[in-house]
Specification:
Layout (H helix, E strand, L loop, with lengths): L3 E7 L3 H12 L4 E6 L5 H10 L6 E3 L12 H16 L5 E6 L3 E2 L3 H10 L3 E2 L3 E2 L13 H4 L10 H14 L12 E2 L5 E3 H13 L1 H8 L8 H9 L5 E2 L4 E2 L16 H5 L5 E2 L7 H11 L12 H13 L8 H4 L8 E6 L3 H15 L3 E2 L20 H6 L1 H12 L3 E6 L4 H8 L4 E8 L4 H10 L9 H25 L4 E5 L4 H12 L3 H8 L8
Parallel strand pairs: 1-2, 1-4, 2-3, 6-10, 11-12, 13-15, 13-16, 14-15, 16-17
Antiparallel strand pairs: 4-9, 5-12, 7-8
Helix pairs in contact: 1-2, 3-7, 7-9, 14-21, 18-19, 20-21
Amino acid sequence: MAKIAYILLCHKDPEAVIAQAEMLTAVGDCISIHFDGRASGDHFRQIKAALADNPNVCFARRRIKCGWGEWTLVQATLLAVEAAMRAFPRATHFYLLSGDCAAIKSARYAHEFLDARDVDYIESFDYFESDWIKTGMKEERLIYRHFFNERKHKWLFDTSFHLQRRLGLNREIPPDIQVQIGSQWWCLRRRTVEWILDFTRQRRDVMRFFRNTWIPDETFFQTLVRHIVPDGEIQTRTLTFLMFTDYGMPQTFYNDHYDLLLGQDFLFARKISPEASDLKTRLAALYADDAALFKISDEGRSLFKFLTGRGRIGRRFATRFWEAESTLGRHRELMIIVCKKWHVAKRLLHRIQHVTNVPTAEYLFNEEACDLPGLGGIQATLSKRTRHRRALLRMLFDYHDTDRMVICMDPGDLDLLEDFCGDRSITRLLEIQCDFTDDYLVGHAVRVGLAGEQTSNETLERLLPTIRGEATYESDKISDAEFEYHYIMRQNADTESNAVPISKFLSIGYDPALRIARTDHLFAD
């Protein structure tokens, strides 16, 4: 009978990792865990301590700091696979999972499913002939070297790419390799995994090539399996059920998706909402139920496509995804810097990102040219961002794979502030109260179209008190709203005093908050 070694890539929620490992090993299977090197060391020690007496659990020999789209994800997977190969010599199958995955069939069903056919389950489509990549880079992922993370160092990523293209520094794909592409999530037989590990030791040229490709977790294993395994022993599909929205974001499953998930022709599903506690409890009980029967309808993807497609012409039978879940999520923290002097807020924002590594976005509801990732068009215009503001922020949280984010907003956007502060997420405001010189107010009047280059001094003198009063009025309105988490830092206060509201706003210690408060030339015009 099949014995599964689960390869778990995770980076948060140690209690969920422990529960997942205990559930999967309770029926006799085993698990090899890689816990991201960027995640908390205390959380990793908590996981190791809780699972120390479980002989069916092992850990990758070292923790890699993983980044989306980087080789590090493949490296972490290989380390966890190697650990599983050593620790579990009787494992017949190796199944790659993330911390957001959950079993949607019983263990008995999974074992019988894998015993039925002697094949590998992995999406493996021709890289150049298939339409698996819908938008963005295609050939460029391979023929140029990608040294930087696109999400964390976008300017360096883009600059390096454009420079290589301009100088003609493209490279050849190894001639005996036909690159394939597909989902990251696979289930491979033991001998296939042995062949892959042998290949990685023998073909250093191929390893060097993939190490600097972009998003290699979608191409590395997919290519190697097709290269070393006969076609008749490959099922070009994943056993993990996942769906994507029109904007290329993974669909999240909630408590009311239980019946839908059980009917799909898959063994696991991804992504399960952190808030779907009832769903997780029911699925965990199901995994250990040897008597459970399953009626496979497999309508999930076609039903999802049908309903969202009808929605595009105003005839949907269900709400669009951004209306179906109107909250950002109880577990998420949205931190908003509110400041009339946008350049001051941006300086502080950049310093916060440098000190805390929390993802940030500038005045995304005020500046059309705000630098945002491609999110399928919802980010394209200010009107779209404002109209679908909660959907936009949910997608940004998902894009950065984070539960904490800092953004900037103008104090005049009181309606947006009230909307976000009324959300079930934890929303905190840091208002920066600045001093306004006459020269600054004149420049502001020109920028917003209240004055031009030829406006007379007499007109400006009459206009300045109104503009100054408007800034004061906006601040007073924010105070009158009595937001629960509203902190204020002032230009005329010393850095030690300003570190206190920064500390509360970011939920960090005083010392890092003080480093942020000491940002060079923070209030300079």
